[in-house]
Amino acid sequence: MSDEPGQSLGEQAYEKAMKYELDYGACPQCVLAAVQETVGIVEDQTVKASHGLSGGGGLVGEGVCGALSGGLLALSAKYGRDRDKLDKGRYMNNFQKARELTERFRREFGGVTCKELQQKFTGQTYDMWNAGEYKAFDDARGKQCAHATGTVARWVTEML
Fold this sequence. Notes:
By secondary structure, this protein is mainly alpha-helical. It has helices at residues 9-24, 27-39, 44-49, 66-79, 92-109, 114-122, 131-141, 144-159. The relative contact order is 0.19.
């Protein structure tokens, strides 16, 4: 866990997640690593398991933005239902927090899917399996995906 003087944990998480996204990509992992390093709660296996959620799931763009997916996983790491409690209710508190994060994300960024964000950030969508299109997306988006990644890490850290 981090404890840099003068910065809130949320701001620390924002900076870490944004840097990780710019340096390494895989936005769900960047959110989870930043949350892990600032407030704990997230295990290494969860960071690993989130990798395939990047780019809307398998880089196809059609699913939930990877940064938002990472945030939902972080919330569930604390508030979600444990395996041995599957028969103990729905754990609505976790769903409420997930809904709050999702709605806040939609208001801030204008959508929740990777393709919706591509459209908002660049004016078009891309095939991330095509090297040329991925490069064009990477150039066109600038730091916008990294900002979204950092923002989710901040919000989640504050919600925990």
